[in-house]
């Protein structure tokens, strides 16, 4: 069955290959798994909490309306990364069979009272997920249904599964301006390929190239983005992994890298009735 709706999840299965599938938790509309011919493409913690009590540690968490924590402004009382990944989305159904495409929706009515009070604007999010033979496309349509302007940031917080962090290479970032949250410095990326040798937490701003994730030169994933100009690269490494209670196993950082497409280096303002769209298409080269 191409689309299976369960109590708390929706499963997409390619009719041509039942072992190519996507599993989406309604809590956070969080993609938990993406398999191609039975091979898992994403990383999810063995300690991920899936009961709706907190954000999922892995897969593709959704970040909206704020990336990180804002010190001031309407999002400053929201939890880190906002409420989209903390809310239960509505399954809106299948919109296409080729590629196999479904949609999820979120509005103020789906957000807890506490979180809605923290950011009390009217909005609609329509999240589209399309599964191809070797591709996963995610798209977001943001609408301001308020009577006033509001600002937002947005990001697909994708956890990629990789063979070995010591061999991972992220290509396409040369010359890009970086806000490095570990060294607390700003600089231009001078390396032709970005590798991970310690805790890494960087916002690459306004990235024009497509991104290639490779392992010792062997291509793993191509990432194509539309209207999400920034790319965040994150690996918690040894200590930060240990300090996250839901990050398991402790050495899981060796098998994952977050390469996150987002619009986070500035705020996007929507006026009443205005809509905004973005998408990310990942092609697995495994
Ligand atoms: O996207 C990178 C980042 O902002 C890191 O700073 C780290 O905090 C990571 O997100 C995970 O955040 P979370 O709130 O899911 O623990």
From TrEMBL:
UniProt-listed InterPro entries: Aldose_1/G6P_1-epimerase (IPR008183), G6P_1-epimerase (IPR025532), Gal_mutarotase_sf_dom (IPR011013), GH-type_carb-bd (IPR014718)
Domain of life: Eukaryota
Keywords, alphabetical: Isomerase
EC number of this enzyme: 5.1.3.15
GO CC annotation, single: cytoplasm
Active-site positions on this chain: 157, 260
Catalytic function, reaction form: alpha-D-glucose 6-phosphate = beta-D-glucose 6-phosphate
A biological process from GO: carbohydrate metabolic process
Any one Gene Ontology molecular-function term assigned to this protein's record: glucose-6-phosphate 1-epimerase activity
UniProt-annotated binding residues for substrate: 57, 80, 85
The keyword Isomerase belongs to this UniProt entry's keyword annotation: yes
Pfam annotation, one family: Aldose_epim
Family, as annotated: Belongs to the glucose-6-phosphate 1-epimerase family.
Protein purpose: Catalyzes the interconversion between the alpha and beta anomers from at least three hexose 6-phosphate sugars (Glc6P, Gal6P, and Man6P).
Protein name, per record: Glucose-6-phosphate 1-epimerase
Source organism: Lipomyces starkeyi NRRL Y-11557
């Amino acid at each position: 069955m191409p689309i299976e709706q369960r109590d708390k999840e929706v499963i997409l299965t390619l009719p041509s290959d039942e072992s190519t599938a996507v599993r989406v938790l309604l809590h956070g509309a969080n993609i938990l798994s993406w398999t191609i011919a039975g091979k898992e493409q994403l990383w999810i913690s063995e300690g991920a909490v899936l009961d709706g009590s907190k954000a999922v540690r892995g897969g593709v968490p959704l970040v909206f309306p704020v990336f990180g924590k804002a010190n001031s402004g309407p999002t400053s009382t929201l939890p880190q990364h906002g409420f989209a990944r903390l809310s239960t989305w509505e399954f809106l159904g299948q919109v296409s069979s080729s590629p196999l495409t479904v949609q999820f929706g979120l509005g103020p009515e789906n957000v807890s009272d506490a979180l809605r009070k923290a950011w009390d604007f009217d909005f609609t999010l329509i999240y589209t997920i399309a599964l191809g033979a070797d591709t996963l496309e995610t798209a977001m349509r943001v609408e301001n249904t308020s009577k006033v302007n509001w600002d937002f940031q947005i990001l697909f917080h994708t956890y990629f599964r990789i063979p070995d962090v010591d061999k991972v290479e992220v290509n396409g970032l040369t010359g890009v301006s970086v806000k490095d949250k570990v060294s607390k410095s700003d600089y231009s990326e001078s390396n032709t390929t970005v590798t991970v040798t310690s805790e890494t937490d960087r916002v690459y701003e306004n990235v024009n190239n497509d991104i290639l994730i490779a392992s010792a030169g062997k291509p793993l994933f191509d990432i194509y983005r539309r209207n999400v100009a920034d790319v965040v690269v994150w690996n918690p490494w040894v200590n930060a992994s240990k300090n996250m209670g839901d990050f398991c196993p402790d050495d899981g950082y060796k098998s994952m890298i977050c390469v996150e497409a987002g619009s986070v280096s500035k705020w996007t303002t929507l006026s009443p009735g205005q809509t905004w769209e973005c998408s990310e298409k990942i092609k697995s080269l495994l």
